[in-house]
Design a protein that fits this description.
Elements lengths: L34 E5 L14 H5 L9 H8 L3 E6 L33 H8 L10
């Protein structure tokens, strides 16, 4: 079930700001109360998957279904709090995106946080979503 995206303090530029994709986790399950983010290559029903490119996003329709892996986490109780930046069309190794900027590496400011999953890496390293060590 898609709901309005909660306001996330994102000093790391990890999250896509041009989508309100958010999924509330199931009322019970082993991941109840945990949060996660999905790279902007995973479909969320009712939202356009941009893949780090505004032209791609503008010329494609909203997804009809939510990606299996995302839905599995939601069904287990975890809430998806947003989509994260990626290299344009995931075709890079530095995590830099000319359209949306480069996420900040919270562990090594001034260095890129990773390849095409740079937004996801920044969100995890910066504690913007739960991790195995940070429930």
């Amino acid at each position: 079930m898609t709901q309005p995206r909660p306001v996330i303090d994102d000093p790391l530029n990890a999250f896509c700001k041009d989508t309100a994709a958010h999924l509330q986790g199931a009322a019970d399950g082993p991941l109840l109360g945990l949060t996660f983010a999905a790279k902007d290559i995973f479909d969320v029903a009712g939202h356009v998957t941009g893949g780090g490119n505004p032209d791609w996003q503008a010329t494609h329709e909203a997804a009809q279904r939510t990606a299996w892996v995302v839905q599995t986490l939601v069904d287990a109780g975890a809430s998806m709090v947003g989509k994260t930046h990626t290299d344009e069309l995931t075709r890079g190794i530095l995590g830099e995106n000319a359209h949306y900027g480069t996420p900040v590496n919270p562990r090594a400011p001034g260095r890129v946080p990773g390849g095409s999953s740079s937004g996801s890496a920044a969100a995890v390293a910066g504690g913007l979503v739960h991790t195995c060590n940070n429930p």
